[in-house]
Amino acid sequence: MQFSEKGTIILAIESSCDETSASVCSDGKILSNFIANQKIHEQYGGVVPELASRAHMQNIVPVVDAAMKKAGCSHSDLSAIAFTQAPGLIGSLLVGTSFAKSLSLALNIPLIAVHHMQAHVLANLIPEDKPNFPFLCLTVSGGHTQIVLCDSPLKMKVLGETLDDAAGEAFDKSAKLLGLPYPGGPLIDQYAKNGDPKKFQFPEPQIPGLDFSFSGLKTSILYFLKDNKKKDPEFVDKNLPDICASIQDRIVSILLHKLKKAAITTGIKDVCIAGGVSANSALRKAFVELGQKMKWNTFIPAFEYCTDNAAMIAITAYYKLKHGDFSDLSVGPNARAEW
């Protein structure tokens, strides 16, 4: 392994869905983090896998180049190459995996495969103010909803997860029912700021243990809107902020109810949230308020580290490098790999 005068430098690549991202970190400190978004999916109301993989091929070289320039380093400074191996869209993962393997081979430096969900959790280790181990993390995104017990950077256990749909999907599907464009989750958050979260009541699923379910909630929202639009075709337009606030309030309450239960069960006081949905303003606010009530030490990643990004891949790779956890060139992308 090669080391530069700047320390142990890792180039990390994230390409699990529709963001192409590259980040450079030196001894665990993030030097750069660039993300290229793909606007083309908006017209289709969701991510089109084939279009996503093609866009990654167009974006990956300029994004990596921008990250390297911002960090002020060259290829000869790199100690290792990290990439998202799983889970995600297989075509998107393949672009990042192939690029990382090629660069690792060309530079003759180690290759580090990273699990996307592990990286979301460890985004909480990027700032100087870090949680102490063990800590709990509620990880919420478009594809996953999990409560994770983190004993160390490389030792984690999923205590509970969604049995069907993820919280992010519940946001986006609800937005689609309301006629909002993709991605709808952030728009629900925006409209909800001017609405009454208690105006309309939606049921909370009675799922035992620490697991989640959002399919029933989506169904109740569907029939709620159908019934009310029959009575008044302009019901959504007249009540959009209140509907958004009420939907958001129920999703947040479901998430935090389970997180509170996990914290009480484990007795852990350092509690985090992570993932794309952790950028939701209502969730962030309610999480902090609950933490104050429960006397938790609460941690939330900066907005740029909540959505898919390569900085979280870089920080995870840093800890894997410290433990000598490398991959060989036989490693390949996996769309559904477990932790």
Give an account of the 3D structure.
The chain is of the alpha/beta class and 339 residues long. The protein has 2 domains: 9-122 and 306-322, 2-Layer Sandwich (Nucleotidyltransferase, domain 5); 133-300, Nucleotidyltransferase, domain 5 (2-Layer Sandwich), CATH 3.30.420. It is 42% helix and 18% strand. It contains 9 helices and 10 strands. A 5-stranded mixed β-sheet has the order 3-2-1-4-5, sandwiched between helices. The chain has a 5-stranded mixed β-sheet with strand order 8-7-6-9-10, sandwiched between helices. Strand 7 (145-152) and strand 8 (155-161) form a beta hairpin. Helix 4 packs parallel to helix 6, helix 4 packs antiparallel against helix 7 (235-266) and helix 7 runs parallel beside helix 8 (281-294). The radius of gyration is 21 Å and the shape is globular. The model has no long low-confidence stretch (mean pLDDT 95).
